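Progress note, sequence design subtask.
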């Protein structure tokens, strides 16, 4: 058998890595706590995934938001689903942190436009995007091809990116189908965002992913009542 020369080997490796990069959503396999978090969405309108740094909180949030946006749910999925293209929000503390966390996880490296489509939203599903003003490489929104198979209706989903620093007024406005808070929001931002979902496809629908740094804050206390379901 002929040996593969170095250049050919490098080209093949690059092609393999590219294929892996654009199949991130398909290859997502949650660990137990992430899977419980996802499954809880079927019955619970508000969910909190709280854990230490680098333990997959934002990964879980991004993977779920990409599933809802694309309508591509894996066989193991036991959580909430959307049968029509949803309008979703994803936010964090500042424009920079929104870009560097939710946007990066969903779309790909912010500063490398040619790599957009290597996040959890497959490149083939991204049909448009609008840039935000004031922060380099920050997107205002990304438009995603949704569904088209089985009971899932074809359409265009939108994930809009928000920042807490803009204040509660910037979280007012349209009805949305779900809000993902990546990092703990102030209580007024959280309640305003949740209110946007009241008339969404599933009614109230919000997830929070963060490392607890603010102690028993008002937001944390919402999930510490006797009625709260914990795993």
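Output:
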């Amino acid at each position: 058998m002929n040996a593969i020369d170095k250049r050919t080997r490098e080209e093949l490796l690059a092609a393999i890595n590219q294929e892996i990069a654009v199949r991130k959503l398909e290859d997502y396999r949650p660990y137990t706590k992430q899977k419980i978090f996802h499954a809880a969405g079927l019955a619970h309108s508000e969910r909190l995934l709280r854990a230490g740094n680098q333990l997959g909180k934002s990964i879980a949030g991004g993977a779920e938001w990409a599933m809802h946006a694309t309508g591509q749910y894996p066989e193991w999925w036991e959580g909430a689903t959307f049968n029509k293209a949803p309008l979703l929000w994803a936010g964090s503390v500042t424009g920079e942190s929104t870009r560097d966390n939710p946007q990066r996880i969903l779309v790909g490296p912010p500063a490398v436009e040619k790599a957009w489509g290597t996040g959890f939203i497959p490149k083939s599903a991204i049909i448009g995007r609008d840039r935000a003003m004031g922060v380099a490489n920050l997107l205002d929104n990304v438009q995603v091809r949704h569904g088209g198979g089985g009971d899932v209706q074809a359409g265009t989903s939108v994930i809009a990116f928000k920042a807490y620093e803009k204040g509660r007024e910037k979280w007012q406005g349209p009805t949305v189908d779900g809000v993902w808070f990546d990092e703990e929001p102030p209580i007024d931002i959280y309640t305003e965002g949740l209110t946007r979902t009241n008339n969404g496809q599933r009614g109230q629908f919000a997830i929070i992913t963060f490392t607890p740094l603010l102690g028993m804050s008002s937001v944390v206390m919402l999930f510490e009542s006797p009625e709260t379901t914990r795993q």
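The mean pLDDT is 88. Work on this subtask will continue into the next period as scheduled.
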